[in-house]
Amino acid sequence: MSYADGFVAAVPTANKDDYIKHAKIAAEVFKEQGALKIVESWGDDVPDGKVTSFPMAVKCAENETVVFSWVIWPSKEIRDSGWQALMDDPRMNSKQNPMPFDGKRLIYGGFNIILEE
User: Fold this and answer.
1) Which of 48, 69, 94, 110 is most buried, by CB atoms within 10 Å?
2) Pfam families from the xrefs (predicted)?
3) What is the percent of the chain with per-residue pLDDT over 90, rounded to a whole number?
4) Confidence class of residue 92 from pLDDT cuts 50, 70 and 90?
5) pTM (2 decimals)?
6) What mean pLDDT is predicted for residues 59-74?
7) Residue 37 β-bridge partners
8) What per-residue confidence (pLDDT) applies to 62?
């Protein structure tokens, strides 16, 4: 069964172009390591909640936009080996390809896909 990694981040709205450049480099490395699909989405209709919400989860400021992303892998095993290679790849080095957002507020996790249509 396929496996997914999901990400939510608050990106300074002014850094959208930098984020896209960063994401394109990361997507290239993910694909080289076996990822089947990478999706990056820029928030458009992401309401604030009263108890929980995407903006609250990443402490999104007024000058930031919520980004929601996911990567689909053929299996957890390929994902695990791919992640290690990704972390070792110089293109993902923070000096060569810095994250254009506060990584401390990034939410991420790996998920077993239970329905795929």
Assistant:
1) 69
2) DUF1428
3) 84
4) confident
5) 0.91
6) 98
7) 72
8) 96
Q: Please classify residue 46 by burial: count the beta carbons closer than 10 Å to its beta carbon, then call 0-12 exposed, 13-18 middle and 19+ buried.
A: middle
**Is residue 65 within 8 Å of 117, Cβ to Cβ?**
no
Mean pLDDT of 77-94: 90
C-alpha 23/C-alpha 18 separation (Å) is: 9
Contacts for 61 with CB less than 8 Å, ≥ 6 apart: 10
CB-based contacts of 85, cutoff 8 Å, min separation 6: 29, 32, 33
The residue-averaged pLDDT of 33-56 equals 97
Mean of per-residue pLDDT scores for the chain = 95
Q: Is the dihedral of CA 44, 49, 55, 60 positive or negative?
A: positive
Burial tier of 55 (Cβ tally within 10 Å: 0-12, 13-18, 19+):
buried
Name the CA dihedral angle for 17, 22, 26, 29, rounded to a multiple of 10 degrees.
100
